[in-house]
Specification:
Blueprint: H1 6-10, E1 21-25, H2 28-31, E2 39-56, E3 67-87, H3 92-98, E4 103-112, E5 117-125, H4 138-147, E6 149-150, E7 153-154, H5 155-168, H6 174-190
Parallel strand pairs: 1-5
Antiparallel strand pairs: 1-3, 2-3, 2-4, 4-5, 6-7
The structure holds succinic acid.
InterPro entries: ChaC (IPR006840), GGCT-like (IPR013024), GGCT-like_sf (IPR036568)
EC number: 4.3.2.7
Organism: Rugamonas brunnea
């Protein structure tokens, strides 16, 4: 099964001709910037909340046993904190490949900590992509993460790196931290 979004993202021409564009990262893009950028700043977006509801068949799981990674779910009034990167459009090719398992580029207002806002883009895996796994209890998500692993490494590394990066940003994410706590409990039981 594939949810490959490369071709769809290549058709997104909203930022064609721009010298640079802000990219908002809320998952692995916060802690793993494996692409060139001109500048980066803590930032947030509104009316979206971070959830471990997307399947990962290519990075933190396999086609037979997908892992769980974050996507954004619409929620009026919610604020999702992350990291914004000012990139040049030639970086899209790399990002489209990295985010190809269900994530589509979406234009969105990005709010910086100094009060300024700019339209930029974010990669979102919407509920209609075939890799979307949907809601589960935070305990079940922790169990799922505990048993998953893929070409980019154990699913638990993704969770732990994200939780650490959010702490470094001074941001509390109830969902991410609850799953991290459940995973630590599971590991304590099995060690
Ligand atoms: C993101 O980090 O902004 C998208 C989801 C991911 O790659 O983990």
């Amino acid at each position: 099964m594939t949810a490959n979004t490369i071709a769809a993202n290549e058709k997104m021409n909203k930022f064609d001709g721009c010298h640079s564009v802000w990219l908002f990262g809320y998952g692995s893009l916060i802690y793993k910037a494996d692409f060139p950028y001109l500048e980066r700043r803590p930032a947030s977006i509104t009316d979206w909340t971070r959830r471990f509801w997307q399947g990962s068949h290519d990075h933190r799981g396999t086609p037979e046993a997908p892992g769980r990674v974050v996507t954004l779910i619409r929620e009026a009034g919610a604020i999702c904190h992350g990291m914004a990167y000012l990139i040049t459009p030639d970086v899209f090719g790399h990002l489209d490949h990295r985010e190809k398992n269900g994530y589509l580029r979406l234009a969105i207002p990005i709010h910086f900590d100094d009060g300024r806002s700019e339209e930029g883009l974010v990669y979102i895996a919407t509920e209609d992509n075939t890799a979307f796994l949907g809601a589960a209890s935070e305990q079940d998500i922790a169990r799922h993460i505990a048993r998953s692993s893929g070409p980019s490494g154990p699913n638990s590394d993704y969770l732990n790196h994200l939780a650490a990066a959010l702490r470094e940003l001074g941001q509390h994410d109830q969902h991410v931290f609850a799953i991290e706590r459940h995973l630590a409990e599971l590991n304590a039981k099995t060690s």
